[in-house]
Design a protein that fits this description.
There is one protein chain. By secondary structure, this protein is mainly alpha-helical. The chain has a domain of about 150 residues. Helices cover about 75% and strands about 0% of the residues. It contains 16 helices and no strands. Helix 5 runs antiparallel to helix 6 and helix 7 runs parallel beside helix 11. The chain is globular, with a radius of gyration of 24 Å. It starts with 10 loop residues before the first helix and ends with a helix.
């Protein structure tokens, strides 16, 4: 049986439909023709890995000559800055080949390594000022060097530098809350579509860094003692509160996108569920951060972000179950209550909105039929 072929949809058509739905504003972003839209993701990963491997060899090759020159931090910093400048020039070469792009990536990673090593040699310590300089350096590279993988890595470097800056400043447990607010603000910002080339790799880096900073605070109490003050004991509550705030704001944005009034029944139920999950995050750390990524992933139909959020959720729940601060009975009651709450929410939604559940079942049947 012949089925009608769908008409080809151009980028201009999609942008016009988004304008009519009032989801975007302004002119359509310029598509970067140098980036292949059909290139599989695993090829990009392997190319990125080759750049990292090349950077290690390049650092080792230049490091041999640096060892002959002695321990001079200012020289190492200048070499690192020079290599990053060379990488910036290579990335701006028109019609770059894959080899030139990966060579530029390797040069930049090597330059960043030398720059960081030189700072530690120059200051002779790992104080907060060192990580502040690294943070500013990574931000500059993120803004001015135009490459997706490079911007992803430098964004991660900037977040980790900020994390250690707060650690060395004896402000513990706050970074994951600030990253959660940044994730919420960037993913829901209209600028993500207008300046996708710059902001999309930063958005993915922040999402990944959210799970890293959330998990990194689990070892804070092992590495530091209680003499570090109030932030060591209670700072994680401040960070968790900021993450909960990001989760509630994202829930409101989803309700606004679905055109629900905040005083309607679906909005009240959604916000109530977000508040309840926020309360559980004080008992089971990391819950609100993982749910934030899952909520944004469903809203934007992003499978990469969804997989990251689900992996984070599984990791945080597993960590909570196997930690030794509480008894097994207490943790079982908490997880049982959380699961019961999720099942009750599912049942209530199916009762209140039966047409949505029927539509989901119909779509699943059509997908199964098409796959056959």
């Amino acid at each position: 049986m012949n089925t009608p072929q769908p008409a080809s949809i151009t980028s201009a058509t999609v942008w016009q439909r988004l304008l009519e739905a009032k989801l975007v504003e302004g002119e359509m972003p310029v598509i970067d023709q140098t980036q292949s839209l059909t290139q599989p993701w695993y090829i990009r990963v392997m190319l990125g890995f080759s750049g990292w491997l090349g950077a290690l060899f390049l650092m080792g090759f230049v490091g041999i000559f640096m060892g002959l020159a002695g321990d001079h931090g200012i020289v190492t910093v200048c070499i690192g800055a020079g290599l990053c400048t060379l990488a910036y020039t290579l990335f701006r070469v028109p019609k770059n080949t894959d080899f030139l792009l990966q060579f530029a990536l390797a040069v930049s990673l090597a330059g960043q390594g030398f720059f960081v090593f030189g700072l530690f040699q120059l200051f002779r310590n790992d104080g907060a000022e060192v990580y502040l300089v690294i943070l500013l350096f990574e931000v500059v590279l993120t803004v001015y060097v135009s490459n997706w993988i490079h911007r992803f890595l430098t964004s991660l470097g900037a977040v980790f530098a900020a994390y250690f800056f707060f650690q060395q400043s004896a402000i513990f447990g706050l970074m994951h809350g600030l990253v959660a607010l940044a994730v919420c603000g960037l993913w829901w910002s209209p600028s993500l579509l207008r300046r996708s080339e710059l902001l999309r790799p930063v958005a993915y880096a922040l999402a990944f860094a959210l799970l890293c900073t959330e998990g990194g605070r689990f070892v804070t109490r092992i590495l530091f003692d209680a003499n570090h003050g109030w932030w060591l004991l209670h700072g994680w509550r401040v960070g968790t509160t900021l993450a909960n705030l990001a989760l509630i704001i994202s829930t409101v944005m989803v309700l606004r996108r679905l055109k629900f009034a905040l005083n309607s029944l679906p909005a009240i139920l959604g916000l109530s569920a977000a508040v309840l999950f926020s309360g559980f995050s004080y008992v089971a750390p990391g819950l609100s951060s993982a749910l934030l990524l899952i909520l944004i992933a469903y809203s934007f139909s992003d499978r990469v972000l969804l997989g990251t959020g689900l992996l984070g959720l599984l990791s945080f729940v597993s960590y909570y179950y196997y930690q030794l601060q509480h008894s097994l009975l207490y943790k079982s009651i908490v997880l049982f209550s959380l699961g019961l709450l999720l099942l009750a929410a599912r049942l209530l939604l199916c009762r209140l909105f039966p047409e949505s559940s029927l539509a989901d079942t119909h779509n699943q049947k059509e997908s199964a039929h098409d796959s056959i």
